[in-house]
Specification:
By secondary structure, this protein is α/β, with parallel strands linked by helices. 39% of the residues lie in helices and 14% in strands. It has 13 helices and 14 strands. The strands form three sheets. It has a seven-stranded mixed sheet with strand order 1-9-8-5-4-2-3, with helices on both faces. Strands 10-12-14-13 form a four-stranded antiparallel sheet. The longest helix is centred in the C-terminal third of the chain and has 23 residues. The protein starts with 16 loop residues before the first helix and ends with a helix. It binds pyridoxal-5'-phosphate. Pyridoxal-5'-phosphate (PLP) binds next to helix 3 and helix 4.
């Protein structure tokens, strides 16, 4: 009898009791808006920003309504204008090109390698076309950040990092989001902290920080921020920076503060699950494990593997056979966007040229979330199922 997996790939852990209690306290006061604070209480959002800035080792932090908002706010804060080109990844999710389109700018797609990171040779070829790179650390894979920063610094290109999947990850000990001028994070339910919706923007640049805070809808209340530059910096920007409201509220911040305190332990828990699946998949004929560089400390909140150069029907057969045994795999190669997955050529508002080498990789990427509600035994079982079904289809093909 073949084993079936009964877990749910979209089931995250409950919100910790301490966070629920903090949220209830905020609700009892009725003071949910971040600037609606009493006396000298800084409020949950300002405290969260201070704590997140410390956790990331940066000077300034702004909490906002979503990760997508953080990215668009970052683009505005560095002065991207309608019609400007912005470099970004071919392999990413829709909010990334969407943030570029939201400011009227035009994405220029840079290819993806078999290691699932931005193709740095393609970046070298295209870096002259834009002044900004919106770098998406898609599914937690970090490119060689030393070489990437060298390329961008040499070309005078500003790097904004989309760390929706790399909160807590590091490249040679440097936290993801701190190499570029700005780091953007999401606290949406599927990411590393869960407030339903939410996000952060971090930077060490005082002008960028001040513009982002005014942009987010601070009115002239920026003095209430605890992870912000001094008033003299706001004097330079306050009359010329529009309000594009996208604030975080005290309720979400209250839920996030206790979660932030356990982020490191959560990252370790994801990695134990990641390694359990990876160990089980390694050596499966026809399947390519994505090897992680020694310089990278990743956060394995999801795992990808490749069925490189497989026919579409064969991949489809693997998806169906795994699904029948309770293992939901997402495929980035599908011609039509489904669920959360879509491809650069489905973002028809953004012109793109054909990228055959990236297409080959995208066609072979299978992707799976690893929520912390899965046990290590669950992960081993999932790997056994994938191994068996990939093997069955692969051998059927060979026979
Ligand atoms: C989720 C996500 C975002 C945006 O986050 P939201 O908070 O949902 O707006 C950006 N980039 C990637 C790669 C994501 O997965």
């Amino acid at each position: 009898m073949s084993e079936i997996f009964k877990g749910n790939f979209t089931q995250q852990e409950p919100i910790p009791d301490e966070a629920i209690a903090a949220a209830v306290e905020v609700m009892k006061t009725g003071r949910l808006h971040r600037y609606n604070v009493a006396g000298d209480d800084p409020g949950e959002v300002a405290l969260l920003e201070q704590e997140f800035a410390r956790a990331m080792g940066v000077k300034y932090c702004l909490a906002v309504a979503s990760g997508g908002y953080a990215m668009a706010c970052a683009l505005r804060a560095v002065g991207v204008k309608p019609g400007d080109k912005v470099l970004t990844n071919t392999f990413t999710l829709a909010p990334v090109p969407g943030s570029i389109a939201s400011v009227g700018a035009v994405p220029v797609f840079v290819g993806v390698t078999e290691d699932l990171v931005i193709d740095l040779d393609d970046l070298v070829a295209k870096v002259g076309q834009a002044k900004v790179l919106m770098l998406s650390h898609m599914r937690g894979h970090l490119a060689d950040m030393d070489r990437l920063m060298e390329i961008c610094d040499a070309a005078g290109v500003t790097v904004i990092e989309d760390c929706a999947h790399t909160m807590g990850a590091k490249w040679r000990g440097r936290l993801s989001g701190t190499d570029g001028l700005i780091g953007c994070y999401s606290t949406q339910t599927y990411k590393h902290l869960n407030s339903g919706e939410g996000g952060f923007l971090v930077t060490d640049d005082e002008d960028v920080a001040a513009r982002a805070i005014i942009l987010s809808g601070s009115y002239m209340l920026y003095g209430r921020h605890l992870a912000a530059p001094g008033p003299e910096v706001f004097e330079r920007v306050k009359y010329v920076t529009p309000n594009v409201s996208g604030r975080m509220d005290n309720l979400r911040a209250a839920i996030l503060r206790p979660q932030l305190r356990r982020l490191d332990a959560q990252c370790e828990a994801w990695n134990a699950r990641y390694r359990a699946v990876e160990d089980g998949l390694r050596g499966t004929p026809g399947l390519t494990v994505v090897e992680r560089p020694a310089e990278e400390y990743y956060v394995g909140s999801s795992i990808q593997f490749l069925l490189l150069d497989w026919a579409e029907e064969q991949i489809d057969a693997v998806l169906k056979r795994c699904a029948a045994r309770g293992v939901e795999l997402k495929w980035f190669g599908g011609a039509e966007p489904t669920g959360f997955t879509s491809r650069y050529d489905s973002w028809r508002y953004a012109p793109s040229e054909l990228m055959p080498e990236s297409d080959r990789v995208l066609k072979g990427i299978l992707d799976m979330r690893l929520p912390l509600t899965f046990s290590l035994e669950d992960c081993a079982l999932i790997a056994r199922i994938i191994r068996a079904e990939v093997g069955a289809v692969f051998q059927g093909e060979a026979a």
